[in-house]
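Record NAD(P)/FAD-dependent oxidoreductase, 309 aa.
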Amino acid sequence: MTEKYAVVVVGGGAAGLSAALVLGRARHRTLVVDAGEPRNAPAAHMQGYLTRDGMPPAEFLAIGREEVARYGVELVRDRVVDVERGEDFAVVLAGGRTVRARRLVVATGLKDELPAVPGVAERFGRDVLHCPFCHGWEVRDQPFGVLATSPASVHQALMVSQWSKDVRLFLHTVAEADLSDEDLRRLAAARVDVVPGEVAELVVEDDRLTGVRLADGTTHARPVLFTAPRPVPQTGLLERLGAELHETPFGAYPVVDATGLTTVPGVWAAGNAIGFAEQVVHAASGGYRAASAIVGDLLMTDLDAAAQV
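=>
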Protein backbone atom coordinates (compact mmCIF):
# COMPACT_ATOMS: atom_id res chain seq x y z
CA MET A 1 0.00 0.00 0.00
CA THR A 2 1.27 3.47 -0.90
CA GLU A 3 1.69 5.57 2.23
CA LYS A 4 -0.57 8.61 2.42
CA TYR A 5 0.24 11.94 4.05
CA ALA A 6 -1.66 15.15 4.41
CA VAL A 7 1.44 17.06 3.30
CA VAL A 8 4.82 16.20 1.86
CA VAL A 9 7.47 18.87 2.34
CA VAL A 10 10.27 18.68 -0.22
CA GLY A 11 13.38 20.16 1.37
CA GLY A 12 14.50 20.16 5.00
CA GLY A 13 16.07 23.60 5.34
CA ALA A 14 14.68 26.50 7.34
CA ALA A 15 11.61 26.88 5.11
CA GLY A 16 10.76 23.20 5.00
CA LEU A 17 11.26 22.55 8.70
CA SER A 18 9.30 25.66 9.67
CA ALA A 19 6.40 24.48 7.53
CA ALA A 20 6.65 20.99 9.03
CA LEU A 21 6.58 22.40 12.56
CA VAL A 22 3.32 24.25 11.93
CA LEU A 23 1.77 21.27 10.16
CA GLY A 24 2.80 18.84 12.88
CA ARG A 25 1.35 21.07 15.58
CA ALA A 26 -1.86 21.23 13.55
CA ARG A 27 -2.05 17.41 13.74
CA HIS A 28 -1.48 16.76 10.05
CA ARG A 29 0.50 13.71 9.05
CA THR A 30 3.57 15.24 7.41
CA LEU A 31 6.66 13.88 5.69
CA VAL A 32 9.80 15.94 5.12
CA VAL A 33 12.07 14.66 2.33
CA ASP A 34 15.52 16.20 2.69
CA ALA A 35 18.46 15.65 0.34
CA GLY A 36 20.82 17.19 2.92
CA GLU A 37 22.24 19.95 0.71
CA PRO A 38 21.50 23.27 2.43
CA ARG A 39 22.61 26.39 0.58
CA ASN A 40 24.38 27.84 3.63
CA ALA A 41 26.39 24.68 4.40
CA PRO A 42 29.76 26.37 3.58
CA ALA A 43 29.19 29.03 6.26
CA ALA A 44 30.49 28.43 9.78
CA HIS A 45 27.80 30.62 11.33
CA MET A 46 24.53 32.29 10.38
CA GLN A 47 23.79 35.86 11.38
CA GLY A 48 20.83 38.20 11.54
CA TYR A 49 18.29 35.69 12.93
CA LEU A 50 17.06 37.08 16.24
CA THR A 51 18.02 34.75 19.17
CA ARG A 52 20.01 32.55 16.75
CA ASP A 53 22.66 35.05 15.69
CA GLY A 54 26.03 33.29 15.31
CA MET A 55 24.62 29.76 15.41
CA PRO A 56 26.23 27.21 13.06
CA PRO A 57 23.76 26.32 10.29
CA ALA A 58 24.12 22.58 10.94
CA GLU A 59 23.21 23.07 14.60
CA PHE A 60 20.19 25.17 13.63
CA LEU A 61 18.89 22.42 11.35
CA ALA A 62 19.59 19.68 13.89
CA ILE A 63 17.52 21.50 16.52
CA GLY A 64 14.78 22.06 13.95
CA ARG A 65 14.63 18.37 13.12
CA GLU A 66 14.34 17.51 16.81
CA GLU A 67 11.52 20.01 17.26
CA VAL A 68 9.38 18.80 14.36
CA ALA A 69 9.87 15.16 15.36
CA ARG A 70 8.17 15.92 18.70
CA TYR A 71 4.92 16.46 16.79
CA GLY A 72 5.06 13.24 14.82
CA VAL A 73 6.53 14.69 11.65
CA GLU A 74 8.50 12.06 9.72
CA LEU A 75 11.86 12.98 8.22
CA VAL A 76 13.69 10.99 5.58
CA ARG A 77 17.07 11.62 3.98
CA ASP A 78 16.23 11.14 0.33
CA ARG A 79 15.53 13.07 -2.84
CA VAL A 80 12.25 13.57 -4.70
CA VAL A 81 12.86 12.59 -8.32
CA ASP A 82 9.33 12.86 -9.70
CA VAL A 83 5.85 13.98 -8.77
CA GLU A 84 2.53 13.44 -10.53
CA ARG A 85 -0.72 15.23 -9.90
CA GLY A 86 -4.08 13.45 -9.85
CA GLU A 87 -6.70 13.45 -7.11
CA ASP A 88 -3.66 13.89 -4.90
CA PHE A 89 0.10 13.94 -5.51
CA ALA A 90 2.22 10.85 -6.13
CA VAL A 91 5.74 11.65 -4.89
CA VAL A 92 8.55 9.37 -6.06
CA LEU A 93 11.76 9.20 -4.02
CA ALA A 94 15.21 8.29 -5.31
CA GLY A 95 15.33 5.40 -2.83
CA GLY A 96 12.43 3.71 -4.62
CA ARG A 97 9.63 4.72 -2.26
CA THR A 98 6.42 6.35 -3.56
CA VAL A 99 4.12 8.26 -1.22
CA ARG A 100 0.93 10.22 -1.73
CA ALA A 101 0.08 13.65 -0.39
CA ARG A 102 -2.94 15.91 -0.45
CA ARG A 103 -0.74 19.02 -0.50
CA LEU A 104 2.90 19.81 -1.27
CA VAL A 105 5.39 22.34 0.04
CA VAL A 106 8.36 22.78 -2.30
CA ALA A 107 11.34 24.18 -0.39
CA THR A 108 14.12 22.94 -2.67
CA GLY A 109 16.11 26.18 -2.55
CA LEU A 110 18.80 26.99 -5.05
CA LYS A 111 22.44 26.34 -5.80
CA ASP A 112 25.17 28.96 -6.01
CA GLU A 113 27.33 28.76 -9.14
CA LEU A 114 30.66 30.39 -8.29
CA PRO A 115 33.04 32.21 -10.62
CA ALA A 116 35.62 29.85 -12.12
CA VAL A 117 38.62 31.50 -10.47
CA PRO A 118 41.09 29.19 -8.71
CA GLY A 119 40.61 29.43 -4.95
CA VAL A 120 37.11 30.90 -4.93
CA ALA A 121 35.17 27.67 -4.40
CA GLU A 122 37.63 26.42 -1.77
CA ARG A 123 37.36 29.63 0.27
CA PHE A 124 33.63 30.26 -0.18
CA GLY A 125 31.86 30.82 3.12
CA ARG A 126 35.17 31.48 4.91
CA ASP A 127 36.96 34.55 3.56
CA VAL A 128 35.27 34.53 0.15
CA LEU A 129 31.78 35.85 0.91
CA HIS A 130 28.69 37.03 -0.91
CA CYS A 131 26.37 38.73 1.58
CA PRO A 132 27.50 41.67 3.73
CA PHE A 133 24.39 41.33 5.91
CA CYS A 134 25.45 37.75 6.66
CA HIS A 135 29.18 38.34 7.17
CA GLY A 136 29.97 42.05 7.05
CA TRP A 137 30.19 42.58 10.81
CA GLU A 138 32.63 39.69 11.25
CA VAL A 139 35.09 41.13 8.70
CA ARG A 140 34.44 44.83 9.30
CA ASP A 141 37.19 47.39 8.70
CA GLN A 142 39.42 44.93 6.85
CA PRO A 143 40.51 45.59 3.25
CA PHE A 144 37.81 44.16 0.98
CA GLY A 145 37.99 42.97 -2.59
CA VAL A 146 34.92 42.52 -4.77
CA LEU A 147 35.20 40.10 -7.69
CA ALA A 148 32.88 41.34 -10.43
CA THR A 149 30.71 38.81 -12.21
CA SER A 150 28.64 41.38 -14.14
CA PRO A 151 28.12 45.16 -14.17
CA ALA A 152 25.62 44.54 -11.32
CA SER A 153 28.63 43.83 -9.09
CA VAL A 154 28.96 47.59 -8.73
CA HIS A 155 25.98 47.42 -6.39
CA GLN A 156 27.73 44.80 -4.26
CA ALA A 157 30.87 46.94 -4.07
CA LEU A 158 28.85 49.94 -2.96
CA MET A 159 26.97 47.91 -0.35
CA VAL A 160 30.07 46.42 1.27
CA SER A 161 31.54 49.92 1.63
CA GLN A 162 29.20 50.23 4.63
CA TRP A 163 31.47 47.75 6.46
CA SER A 164 34.89 48.85 5.18
CA LYS A 165 36.34 52.05 3.77
CA ASP A 166 39.03 50.13 1.87
CA VAL A 167 37.24 48.44 -1.02
CA ARG A 168 38.61 47.44 -4.42
CA LEU A 169 36.35 46.32 -7.24
CA PHE A 170 38.16 43.85 -9.49
CA LEU A 171 36.40 44.09 -12.84
CA HIS A 172 37.69 40.66 -13.92
CA THR A 173 35.79 39.93 -17.14
CA VAL A 174 33.65 43.11 -16.99
CA ALA A 175 34.78 45.93 -19.26
CA GLU A 176 35.15 49.35 -17.67
CA ALA A 177 33.10 50.72 -20.56
CA ASP A 178 30.14 48.64 -19.31
CA LEU A 179 29.90 50.76 -16.15
CA SER A 180 27.46 53.63 -16.35
CA ASP A 181 28.29 57.22 -15.47
CA GLU A 182 26.08 56.84 -12.39
CA ASP A 183 28.04 53.73 -11.38
CA LEU A 184 31.33 55.59 -11.67
CA ARG A 185 30.04 58.58 -9.72
CA ARG A 186 28.80 56.41 -6.88
CA LEU A 187 31.99 54.35 -6.79
CA ALA A 188 34.02 57.54 -6.57
CA ALA A 189 31.77 58.92 -3.83
CA ALA A 190 32.19 55.68 -1.85
CA ARG A 191 35.96 55.77 -2.52
CA VAL A 192 35.87 52.33 -4.07
CA ASP A 193 38.95 51.68 -6.21
CA VAL A 194 38.18 50.17 -9.60
CA VAL A 195 40.81 47.67 -10.78
CA PRO A 196 40.59 46.56 -14.44
CA GLY A 197 42.06 43.29 -15.61
CA GLU A 198 41.17 39.63 -15.27
CA VAL A 199 41.70 37.88 -11.94
CA ALA A 200 43.89 34.79 -12.35
CA GLU A 201 43.75 33.31 -8.86
CA LEU A 202 43.48 33.90 -5.15
CA VAL A 203 46.58 33.96 -2.98
CA VAL A 204 46.28 31.76 0.10
CA GLU A 205 48.89 31.42 2.84
CA ASP A 206 48.55 29.23 5.95
CA ASP A 207 44.92 28.49 4.99
CA ARG A 208 44.07 32.20 4.91
CA LEU A 209 43.24 34.44 1.98
CA THR A 210 45.95 37.07 1.64
CA GLY A 211 45.50 38.49 -1.82
CA VAL A 212 44.12 38.60 -5.32
CA ARG A 213 46.48 37.99 -8.25
CA LEU A 214 45.65 39.38 -11.68
CA ALA A 215 46.50 37.78 -15.01
CA ASP A 216 49.28 40.36 -15.50
CA GLY A 217 51.00 39.08 -12.35
CA THR A 218 50.20 41.99 -10.05
CA THR A 219 48.93 41.08 -6.60
CA HIS A 220 46.62 43.08 -4.38
CA ALA A 221 46.67 42.35 -0.66
CA ARG A 222 43.08 41.50 0.33
CA PRO A 223 42.15 39.26 3.29
CA VAL A 224 38.44 39.35 2.34
CA LEU A 225 36.80 38.92 -1.05
CA PHE A 226 33.13 39.36 -1.88
CA THR A 227 31.58 37.97 -5.02
CA ALA A 228 28.09 37.26 -6.34
CA PRO A 229 27.47 33.63 -7.30
CA ARG A 230 25.01 32.93 -10.08
CA PRO A 231 21.89 31.56 -8.38
CA VAL A 232 20.47 28.42 -10.00
CA PRO A 233 16.86 27.86 -8.84
CA GLN A 234 15.93 24.23 -8.20
CA THR A 235 12.54 24.37 -9.93
CA GLY A 236 12.48 20.98 -11.65
CA LEU A 237 9.57 19.60 -9.61
CA LEU A 238 7.54 22.77 -10.03
CA GLU A 239 8.11 22.74 -13.77
CA ARG A 240 6.99 19.10 -13.94
CA LEU A 241 3.78 20.08 -12.22
CA GLY A 242 3.21 22.93 -14.69
CA ALA A 243 3.79 25.82 -12.29
CA GLU A 244 4.07 29.22 -13.93
CA LEU A 245 7.51 30.80 -13.56
CA HIS A 246 8.57 34.40 -13.92
CA GLU A 247 11.96 35.55 -15.14
CA THR A 248 14.14 37.73 -12.93
CA PRO A 249 17.74 38.93 -13.30
CA PHE A 250 18.61 36.11 -10.89
CA GLY A 251 16.81 33.21 -12.54
CA ALA A 252 13.25 31.97 -13.04
CA TYR A 253 11.11 31.49 -9.93
CA PRO A 254 7.51 30.35 -9.42
CA VAL A 255 4.69 32.83 -9.41
CA VAL A 256 3.25 32.72 -5.88
CA ASP A 257 0.68 34.58 -3.82
CA ALA A 258 1.29 36.08 -0.39
CA THR A 259 1.17 32.65 1.26
CA GLY A 260 3.50 30.96 -1.23
CA LEU A 261 0.71 29.24 -3.20
CA THR A 262 1.90 28.56 -6.74
CA THR A 263 -0.30 28.51 -9.85
CA VAL A 264 -0.71 24.75 -9.31
CA PRO A 265 -3.59 24.06 -6.89
CA GLY A 266 -2.35 22.36 -3.75
CA VAL A 267 1.32 23.30 -4.24
CA TRP A 268 3.08 25.90 -2.12
CA ALA A 269 6.70 27.07 -2.36
CA ALA A 270 8.89 28.77 0.24
CA GLY A 271 12.45 29.89 0.95
CA ASN A 272 15.00 30.23 -1.82
CA ALA A 273 12.64 28.24 -4.03
CA ILE A 274 10.76 31.54 -4.55
CA GLY A 275 13.69 33.99 -4.71
CA PHE A 276 17.46 34.24 -4.47
CA ALA A 277 17.56 36.77 -1.61
CA GLU A 278 15.57 34.82 1.00
CA GLN A 279 17.68 34.74 4.16
CA VAL A 280 17.19 32.04 6.80
CA VAL A 281 14.80 34.22 8.79
CA HIS A 282 12.74 34.94 5.65
CA ALA A 283 12.72 31.26 4.69
CA ALA A 284 11.44 30.23 8.11
CA SER A 285 8.72 32.87 7.92
CA GLY A 286 7.73 31.74 4.42
CA GLY A 287 7.45 28.14 5.56
CA TYR A 288 5.22 29.20 8.43
CA ARG A 289 2.94 31.21 6.13
CA ALA A 290 2.63 28.36 3.64
CA ALA A 291 1.83 25.80 6.32
CA SER A 292 -0.78 27.93 8.04
CA ALA A 293 -2.49 28.48 4.68
CA ILE A 294 -2.44 24.73 4.02
CA VAL A 295 -4.03 24.00 7.41
CA GLY A 296 -6.91 26.33 6.56
CA ASP A 297 -7.19 24.98 3.03
CA LEU A 298 -7.42 21.35 4.16
CA LEU A 299 -9.92 22.17 6.88
CA MET A 300 -12.28 24.06 4.57
CA THR A 301 -11.98 21.37 1.90
CA ASP A 302 -12.97 18.68 4.38
CA LEU A 303 -15.80 20.74 5.87
CA ASP A 304 -17.23 21.46 2.43
CA ALA A 305 -17.06 17.74 1.56
CA ALA A 306 -18.77 16.79 4.83
CA ALA A 307 -21.51 19.37 4.28
CA GLN A 308 -22.44 17.74 0.97
CA VAL A 309 -22.90 14.26 2.44
